[in-house]
């Protein structure tokens, strides 16, 4: 094997921070691989793993729908490609999402995670906060959660493993090869979650 090909969906949002964190994770784990910004169906087709970053889920979803990459991502996930959805990325991976204030919107979703999401569950931009959280189940007992217009998971189906809660709200999950967090690990300098994801890709390949 020549090394892992990891993509960061580069439509809008926290792209560069995830490129850097993923590259550093490969380095620290001593693994071979490349990390590229991707946005076309052709680029996505070649990937072993994908991160969908935080940003604005309506924008990322709509633009990805228009250029055909949403369909390609769906196809790749159905074939087992590991995906890490961060904040807006978590929303896009879900089956159902509604905004805390606006309610249900007809936004494009990837329709994989068996969860109901509440967007902006902790308030608006000015209500952003940080808090220590824990993901014991995947060997990360202590992590700094950075929450920016963050969603929460209101309901999770039986195939969804809950990895973390904050104030009774579910904020990190795993379903098969998909992980999703309400918070932004790429902004912390702590690589443990990115390393966990890189290892998940390696196991699959
Ligand atoms: N509130 C944003 C949305 O609904 C997500 C925020 C984020 O990714 N930091 O798309």
In short:
This protein is α/β, with parallel strands linked by helices and 205 residues long.
3D structure, described in words:
- By secondary structure, this protein is of the alpha/beta class.
- It has one domain: Class I glutamine amidotransferase (GATase) domain (Rossmann fold).
- The protein is 29% helix and 35% strand.
- Helix 1 (15-29) crosses helix 6 (192-204).
- The longest helix has 15 residues, at 15-29.
- The N and C termini lie close together (9 Å).
- The relative contact order is 0.18.
- The model has no long low-confidence stretch (mean pLDDT 97).
- The structure holds glutamine.
Descriptive terms for the model:
seven-stranded mixed sheet; alpha/beta; 6 helices; four-stranded mixed sheet; Rossmann fold; 205 residues; 29% helix
CATH structural fold name: Rossmann fold
- Given the C-alpha coordinates, what overall shape results? globular
What does the radius of gyration come to? 15 Å
- What compounds sit in this structure? glutamine
Low-pLDDT segments, ≥5 res: none
Strand line-up of the largest beta sheet: 2-1-3-4-13-12-11
Content-based structural category? alpha/beta
What is the beta-strand fraction? 35-45%
Oligomer state equals single chain
């Amino acid at each position: 094997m020549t090394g892992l090909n990891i993509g960061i969906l580069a439509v809008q949002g926290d792209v560069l921070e995830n490129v850097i964190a993923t590259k550093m994770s490969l380095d620290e784990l001593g693994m071979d691989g490349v990390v590229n910004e991707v946005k076309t169906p052709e680029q996505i087709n070649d990937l072993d793993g994908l991160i969908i970053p935080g940003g604005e889920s309506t924008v990322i979803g709509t633009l990805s729908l228009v250029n055909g990459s949403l369909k390609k991502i769906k196809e790749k996930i159905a074939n087992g490609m590991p995906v890490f959805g961060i904040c807006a990325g978590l929303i896009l991976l879900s089956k159902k999402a509604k905004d805390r204030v606006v309610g249900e919107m007809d936004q494009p979703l990837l329709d994989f995670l068996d969860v109901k999401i509440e967007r902006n569950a902790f308030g608006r931009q000015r209500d952003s906060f940080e808090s220590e959280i824990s993901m014991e189940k995947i060997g990360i007992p202590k992590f700094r959660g950075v929450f920016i217009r963050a969603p929460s998971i209101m309901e999770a189906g039986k195939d969804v493993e809950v990895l973390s809660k904050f104030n009774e709200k579910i904020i990190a999950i795993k379903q098969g090869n998909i992980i999703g967090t309400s918070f932004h690990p790429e902004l912390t300098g702590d690589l443990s979650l990115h390393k966990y994801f890189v290892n998940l890709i390696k196991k699959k390949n």
